[in-house]
Amino acid sequence: MKYQKRQNAIILLADGTIFYGKAVGNKQGTSFGEVCFNTGMTGYQEIFTDPSYYGQLMVTTNAHIGNYGTNADEIESDSIKIAGLICKNFSYDYSRDAADSSLETFLNDNNLLAISDVDTRALVSYIRDNGAMNAVISTDVDNVDELKKQLAEVPNMNGLELASKVSTDEPYYFGDENATYKVAALDIGIKKNILRNIAKRDVYIKVFPYNATFEELSNWNPDGYFLSNGPGDPEPLKEAQALAKEIIKRDLPLFGICLGHQVIAIANGVSTYKMHHGHRGINHPVKNLVTGKGEITSQNHGFAVNREEAESHPDLEVTHMHLNDHTVAGLAMKSKNCFSVQYHPEASPGPHDSSYLFDQFIENIKKSK
Amino acid sequence: MPKNSKLKSILIIGSGPIVIGQACEFDYSGSQALRSLREDGIETILINSNPATIMTDPSMADHVYLLPLNTKSLIKILKEHPQIDAVLPTMGGQTALNLCIEADEKGIWEDFGVEIIGVDIDAINITEDREQFRELMLKIGIPMAPQATATSYLKGKEIAQEFGFPLVIRASYTLGGAGASFVHKEEDFDELLTRGLEISPIHEVMIDKALIGWKEYELELLRDANDNVVIICSIENMDPMGIHTGDSITVAPAMTLSDRTYQRMRDMAIHMMRSIGDFAGGCNVQFAVSPDEKEDIIAIEINPRVSRSSALASKATGYPIAKIAAKLAIGYNLDELSNQITKSTSALFEPTLDYVIVKIPRWNFDKFEGSDRTLGLQMKSVGEVMGIGRSFQEALHKATQSLEIKRNGLGADGKENKNYDQIIEKLTYASWDRVFIIYDAIAKGIPLSRIHEITKIDMWFLKQYEELYLLQNEISTYTIDSIEKELLLEAKQKGYGDRQIAHMLGCLESQVYNKREALGINRVYKLVDTCAAEFKAQTPYYYSTFESDMETADGKRYADNESVVSDKKKVIVLGSGPNRIGQGIEFDYCCVHGVLAAAEVGYETIMINCNPETVSTDFDTADKLYFEPVFWEHIYDIIKHEKPEGVIVQLGGQTALKLAEKLSRYGIKILGTSFEALDLAEDRGLFSNLLKENNIPYPKFDIATTADEALAIADVLDFPILVRPSYVLGGQGMKIVINKAELEKHVVDLLSKMPDNKLLLDHYLDGAIEAEADAICDGEDVYIIGIMEHIEPCGIHSGDSNSTLPPFNLGDLVMQQIKDHTKKIALALNTVGLINIQFAIKDDTVFIIEANPRASRTVPFIAKAYGEPYVNYATKVMLGDKKLKDFNFNPKLEGYAIKQPVFSFNKFPNVNKKLGPEMKSTGESILFIDSLKDDAFYDLYSRRKMYLSK
């Protein structure tokens, strides 16, 4: 073993601010995306493979990343979805019997650029104060002007449709086909653990591509419908909104998570907006306004539902509230069998406090049967 | 549910004197709880017999009772305060819980209509009774290690056969782990089983399957009355199962747990807390995780109260557990409270860290000659330090630099162990030096796999050690002139001290410092904010690190520093570092009062300390807290950054005082007594000249630097002779010798441990009475705050003596001499602030043993006994804000206050309990008596010469 010298790398923000670091594994390259941060202390592999993070340069705030390697079972989609990783200390060596490779190998297999030794705390404070913005990470440290030019070409996340980039091309099935219930799930960036959580409640699932129509879903005769999480702005997802309207019109059991929750809000005529720097972490406090109980939740969203509009909507009830900034964390329709949450009850990563929501979905399905 | 408005008056039970396993973390939690309750307008009544605590300050509670922790005292308090609505017993450790249970069993709470809040008795009983706890856990589906109870030798053998080895045998109903042992091999079993059965008063032992090598974790939980539960912190023990968590090197957050396993553990912890009862408050749960691919989790124990780990977790995360736990106990729900750090977000959340903390225990085996120094099932450390860094390596280095055991960090200080056999031996039997030996083993070329095989320490930690060693090797190929910025920055980021880097480069520490300054490698300060910078924090709780640069759009390049310096006049108070015998909580009491006094007179106060158990490191204490090693490099950088008016060194014990010389050399102002005066008092030759000039008697003495000199001196002085090294604490290395053979042996021994030390040889005044005086001096006037007389004869360390305030049998002539000498010495030394002088009295003549121009162990005791804020006054004098004549002294004490030392010998069964000039007690208590006819005094007095059997 010998001391390893690492190559320089930078992160350049759209406003011209630069943070210095080192390239992980001496890999060369440049990668663009919107910079965002996740405050979770565990679950990096789940985060990197979560389709909701598509196109984002991920800053992990935990001091060390990669300590326990990676494990083929602990992924949320088939590949890494983030556009690049920015971290403080990168563990080239890992320790876990259940792991099958190091994080470095996993990143290389997915051809992902990562930079370490960045003052991530200063970067996070900067994003907190100045908002999420586009950025580039690169080992081409002597070519800042050229990077700036290229960065200017990258489209803004606001109004950006990304679901089509991560959705399945063809429908597929998940779970036991002899299960009691059938749920049709729209994949606008679905995480595997959502499928696992629904399927283990005696449900057989058919997953449809982002642009599937109500007819396509209903032809399978499902007992319930599910709108998944996913990346980007919910506004351009016209097909998904139309689908939600059809399901709601017929009062069929419907559950939405994250992007799916936003789509349901828009289907009800409630607008969404891009947040200053979003919620990304596994320690977010939510209060269930129906039961009065708190729950610690896993969150990952850069857009949110307009609270005034939701509260004044005659047919909507705000069921959950984020305790830190009082944004809308959950909605239910008063006269329809439809509810949704902004956060991630499937966890992975994160606490399991909210898994009751899947039970509630099954109860709703039973009620309507 | 909002606050329970029925609760208007609450009794809090403290933890009593400090013993191993229950230290000043409970002063921190109790103080926080008191403040928290008062914020809500609740009347607070406190009982605690420990006078050295902040919590027993008159300003902390509405009524403070410095009484023995027993039900008699409780009844007295409850009679005097029939308005007490509830008792909060979870802030005072096991002592408080036990007293609460005893009172409950006797029906005292019921008689006085007092509700128990913060815990329920059933919960305590379940968690204390291994058998009941085990049944409950199995019922709710939480796995535990196989365990069975044996009441006979035969039954024990059967159990062993079933479980296989290794095993743990614990004798039932014994205290402090007596009779507990590991059994690794079958051939040892018979003897250890028999011993366990014999030690147990009910002839019963518990036999556990030992989970040796399993990874060990702790979670800190809070629950409110609405059954919301949050995890405040996860702590990973670097030392796996087998070493008591109090003696383990621990790390937060957990470093080697995947989300899947962590969340499983989190679910189990919540489930366990909910299962043991219905209470609102804090809770600590310990787990073991199998180090294989199954990652099985087994519950070890649950403590339904604030603990040592929760104090650590509070300092590690910034989330004030005791403060919030107190609010939950009076009926608040978590979602009704705000995050105390951000002030803008909710208290119902789980802190997230963007740094790492490492806790290393501090042991005092040197005080317990002949003790078993191996770490195991029973806690043996007396204090702890915490290092905060932006990486595990940096935090580890900072923790080692905080220990004050004359090491500069890991490796590169010329003190490495290079003996292969010794290294293997020390890896096998962990002791105080484990943290260093791992580094030495790597340096020696012992493969990591072998180190792992012996220690079972997770490979991730060992790899981190190895990275450090590789970096050291790389740096060693450079010189001070050839080393590049990047490499030097990396060394600093990984926590290496300038001294260590100088050692690697073969240059001076100052050259490294100058080089970094030239290259712009500067310490920056980051906030502990509970939220990884997601929200703006309001609380000035800082740690240092070294960061890569950022550059603004207009080309300004710098490393981001979050500690903004104000333009107010500032003062830095140096803390006392880890608790150890001879320097404990008393000095934290003094530091905290120094801070508060300086704030009163308009200073911005800055605290530097590295002890996570204390009130001084509560972010609510000073205007700015730097949680940093009390180590030159760190202090100097803070001083350069903050530019204070001066530094207060006389409140933080020897730790702070030792830095006076260097501060003075660097032209930094020492507030109060100058370095020269401090040094003069410590230099026996100069000090004796001063005494001679002032006509003050002192025992005949001389100074030796070799055994030869010592033997020659002995001819002049006559035996018995008291031998002691210079610049030590708590009488370290002090011994009374009666002949030349003994003298030679001790001198040789001391000089091998402390080369170049000047040894002081005093003629020992046999049969003398010992007394001490504490005083405040402003340079012109002297005010004696108290004179105490030791009940035991001269020769026993003042910290180990029972003593009375005021003296019980010193005549007017003697008292007058004590007063005159104290005043003369304080003025002659140009004291500004506190001074403590120790006397030996023989044949009505008062001899001076020593003078220490600084806060002493007895100052808090005297302040409590007289009800006067002496440290506050002394600090204002040091700052030059007040003169003695500005104060209106009004001490109130009817009868006598007796200071009683408390020992932790039960943790060291094989140790000689003989007392002598070297201090061995870990804590003290105060007892008020009306007159000398009191049985308590009579008892102590009659036993005064039986100290051998203590």
From TrEMBL, chain A:
Active site feature: C258, H344, E346
Ranges where the record places region CPSase: 1-181
Catalyzed reaction equations: L-glutamine + H2O = L-glutamate + NH4(+); hydrogencarbonate + L-glutamine + 2 ATP + H2O = carbamoyl phosphate + L-glutamate + 2 ADP + phosphate + 2 H(+)
PROSITE patterns assigned to the protein according to its UniProt record, in alphabetical order: GATASE_TYPE_1
InterPro entries: Anth_synth/Amidotransfase, CarbamoylP_synth_ssu, CarbamoylP_synth_ssu_N, CarbP_synth_ssu_N_sf, Class_I_gatase-like, CPSase_GATase1, GATASE
Protein residues bound to L-glutamine: S52, G230, G232, L259, Q262, N300, G302, F303
Residues annotated as domain Carbamoyl-phosphate synthase small subunit N-terminal: 7-138
Keywords: Amino-acid biosynthesis, Arginine biosynthesis, ATP-binding, Glutamine amidotransferase, Ligase, Nucleotide-binding, Pyrimidine biosynthesis
Catalytic activity, EC: 6.3.5.5
UniProt pathway: Pyrimidine metabolism; UMP biosynthesis via de novo pathway; (S)-dihydroorotate from bicarbonate: step 1/3; Amino-acid biosynthesis; L-arginine biosynthesis; carbamoyl phosphate from bicarbonate: step 1/1
GO terms classed as biological process: 'de novo' pyrimidine nucleobase biosynthetic process; 'de novo' UMP biosynthetic process; glutamine metabolic process; L-arginine biosynthetic process
A molecular-function term among this protein's GO annotations: carbamoyl-phosphate synthase (glutamine-hydrolyzing) activity
Domain of life according to the entry: Bacteria
EC main group: ligase
Entry-linked NCBIfam families: CPSaseIIsmall, PRK12838.1
Function description: Small subunit of the glutamine-dependent carbamoyl phosphate synthetase (CPSase). CPSase catalyzes the formation of carbamoyl phosphate from the ammonia moiety of glutamine, carbonate, and phosphate donated by ATP, constituting the first step of 2 biosynthetic pathways, one leading to arginine and/or urea and the other to pyrimidine nucleotides. The small subunit (glutamine amidotransferase) binds and cleaves glutamine to supply the large subunit with the substrate ammonia.
PANTHER family: CARBAMOYL-PHOSPHATE SYNTHASE SMALL CHAIN, MULTIFUNCTIONAL TRYPTOPHAN BIOSYNTHESIS PROTEIN-RELATED
Subunit structure: Composed of two chains; the small (or glutamine) chain promotes the hydrolysis of glutamine to ammonia, which is used by the large (or ammonia) chain to synthesize carbamoyl phosphate. Tetramer of heterodimers (alpha,beta)4.
Family stated for the protein in its record: Belongs to the CarA family.
Name the UniProt record assigns to this protein: Carbamoyl phosphate synthase small chain
Organism taxonomic ancestry: Bacteria, Pseudomonadati, Bacteroidota, Flavobacteriia, Flavobacteriales
UniProtKB/TrEMBL annotation, chain B:
Domain (ATP-grasp) ranges: 134-330, 688-879
Pfam family, one: CPSase_L_D2
Main function: Large subunit of the glutamine-dependent carbamoyl phosphate synthetase (CPSase). CPSase catalyzes the formation of carbamoyl phosphate from the ammonia moiety of glutamine, carbonate, and phosphate donated by ATP, constituting the first step of 2 biosynthetic pathways, one leading to arginine and/or urea and the other to pyrimidine nucleotides.
Keywords: Amino-acid biosynthesis, Arginine biosynthesis, ATP-binding, Ligase, Magnesium, Manganese, Metal-binding, Nucleotide-binding, Pyrimidine biosynthesis, Repeat
Organism per entry: Snuella sedimenti
Functional pathway: Amino-acid biosynthesis; L-arginine biosynthesis; carbamoyl phosphate from bicarbonate: step 1/1; Pyrimidine metabolism; UMP biosynthesis via de novo pathway; (S)-dihydroorotate from bicarbonate: step 1/3
Protein name: Carbamoyl-phosphate synthase large subunit
Gene Ontology molecular function: ATP binding; carbamoyl-phosphate synthase (ammonia) activity; carbamoyl-phosphate synthase (glutamine-hydrolyzing) activity; metal ion binding
